[in-house]
Design brief:
- This protein is of the alpha/beta class and 252 residues long.
- Helix content is 40%, strand content 15%.
- The protein is globular.
- The relative contact order is 0.14.
């Protein structure tokens, strides 16, 4: 029987893949045979390299500040030359800064947008050029349910994540003729480092879970199935869509 999730021979690039959802997705891609390139701001790959060994795939770690246009310039072409191809790109890098609207620093706004919007478009464009020459590919943008639900103090994050959904549709329309699929995932609140404080506070955690139909918040493993669907041939007729993974939170 054909394995529709077989990614052997493919190369996947995951930004912000050192930890959290990025790491979970990178490990899942490796488990299904893809060679992995991680782009992260930290120069320390942590234990990621050791964890990749068990999958017997190629692994490369690239340190880069994706908020810096000069550091992004030609980055995917360099990775392609080193790894042989770029078949899957997951734009996952981002940050979460909270402040009242009237006190939100403009310098922080610029930083947030450069990472979550500028880098997402820049790398998607770079990948699109490579994938067009290769005959196709998959680009997955990581948005958020903050794009649909107001987030007090998260104005830059919510604005960027909302814009990513529109960017996904525009990119999908422009790149579909080249067999390049561009789609997005909008996760809800997940149990990752960025939300560690919340998960360590039983009262706050209970309050956050109350309006969620599933009765729980997300675990990193919950994003793997949706991601593999969009990264594999299973989604060969899917373009420009945003798959919400939130336990039903946005149903209300």
């Amino acid at each position: 029987m054909k394995d529709y999730f077989d990614l052997k021979g493919k190369t996947a690039v995951v930004t912000g893949g050192r930890r959290g959802l990025g790491k979970a997705m990178a490990l899942a891609l490796a488990e299904h045979g893809a060679n992995i390139a991680i782009i992260a701001q930290s120069s320390d790959a942590g234990m990621l390299a050791d964890e990749m060994v068990r999958y017997d795939v190629g692994f490369f770690y690239q340190q880069a500040n994706l908020g810096n246009r000069e550091e992004r310039a030609g980055l995917l072409q360099k990775l392609c030359e080193r790894l042989g191809s770029v078949d899957i790109l997951i734009n996952n890098a981002g940050g979460l800064f909270c402040a009242p609207v009237l006190e939100y620093p403009l310098e922080q706004w610029d930083k947030d947008m450069s990472i979550m919007l500028d880098a997402t478009f820049d790398l998607s464009q770079q990948a699109g050029k490579i994938m067009k020459e290769q005959g196709g590919g998959k680009i997955i943008q990581i948005s958020s349910t903050a794009a649909f639900q107001e987030g007090v103090g998260l104005i830059a994050y919510a604005t960027a994540k909302s814009a990513i959904i529109t960017m996904t549709r525009c990119l999908a329309a422009g790149l579909a003729p080249f067999n390049i699929h561009v789609n997005a995932i909008a996760p809800g609140i997940f149990n990752t480092d960025i939300n560690r404080t919340l998960f360590n506070d039983p009262t706050a955690l209970a309050a956050r879970m109350k309006p969620i139909p599933s009765g729980r918040l997300g675990e990193p493993e919950d994003i793997i199935g949706p991601m593999l669907f969009l990264a594999s041939e299973q989604s060969r007729h899917v373009y420009g869509q945003t798959l919400v993974v939130d336990g039903g939170f946005t149903l209300k």
